[in-house]
Amino acid sequence: KILVIGACGQIGSELTSALRERYGNAQVIAGDRLSAGSHAGQAQPYVQLDVLDKAHLSQIVADENITQIYHLAAVLSATGEKEPQLAWQINMQGLLNVLDIAVSAGLEKVFWPSSIAVFGPDSPKKNCPQQAVTEPTTVYGISKCAGEYWCNYYHQKFGLDVRSLRFPGLISYLAAPGGGTTDYAVDIFHKAVETAEYECYLEADTPLPMMYMHDAIRATLELMDANAENIGVRTSYNLAGLSFTPAEIAQAIKKHIPGFRISYAPDFRQQIAESWPGSIDDSVARKDWGWKPKFDLEAMVEEMLKGMKITV
Ligand code: VAH
């Protein structure tokens, strides 16, 4: 059976649905810190859990005969700068608890998301390669960078089949993002539909690596399906979908909502965004396990607006 930790989050909620579609509801246990019944859209089986409560997590794995864990619970970049200690605790100790339990319970596989946030101001800005300077300047990025080395360590030392992807900013109309710097790319759609105007907290010409959630979920399932011997990267794979600036996505939305207006009022997240590459080279993922994104800017905008019931 599969346990999804962070099943109520932006990735977790859609990943849980995709896994249930493939393996059946009963085979996929959704886990999150919210109390059972209070979480939107998370059908049973559901278990309330805290990634810092290792004993309880271990008990769930034993009681539910878990053989795989998708560990998505984390504090993201913007919130992490407001709560650095919490972010470090949840992101780091949470991962270490999962890795330890996976080894002692002899789990088949573990998935853990890293992020392009592992890169920093000195990383290449364009088509940042798999092997590049990773000097993150956010607590979130530091925790993801350290987490990658821990995953690699558990694979080398204990043979744990833990696999990881450096997700770009993820865009979906189903699940709200929580506390990320890239969340503007989701908020802009809701504001465009609701009020036809949006005040963006990033500068107009700030490029960021992004991906439509459908591609991110497919990448996760394809990575987890790949033969272990094809997985040459045990820290975390660069993964690219598309890159755009706030001005570019606003222009693409205006094609469908002509009256849409964007304004700019950069806040502390501008500095975080500027520390990250504008685009990512994912040629190693393409070579090792055949990755290929499907959604470009136009296709993503159309899917998002259709999903929000706007005729495109
Ligand atoms: C964030 N959405 O903004 C996350 C992501 C690449 C960014 O890790 O923090």
TrEMBL record:
One of its GO terms (biological process) is L-threonine catabolic process. Gene3D superfamilies: NAD(P)-binding Rossmann-like Domain. One of its GO terms (molecular function) is L-threonine 3-dehydrogenase activity. Pfam families: Epimerase. InterPro entries: Epimerase_deHydtase (IPR001509), NAD(P)-bd_dom_sf (IPR036291), NAD(P)_epim/dehydratase (IPR051225). Residues 2-229 form the NAD-dependent epimerase/dehydratase domain. Belongs to the NAD(P)-dependent epimerase/dehydratase family. This is L-threonine 3-dehydrogenase. It comes from Arcticibacter pallidicorallinus.
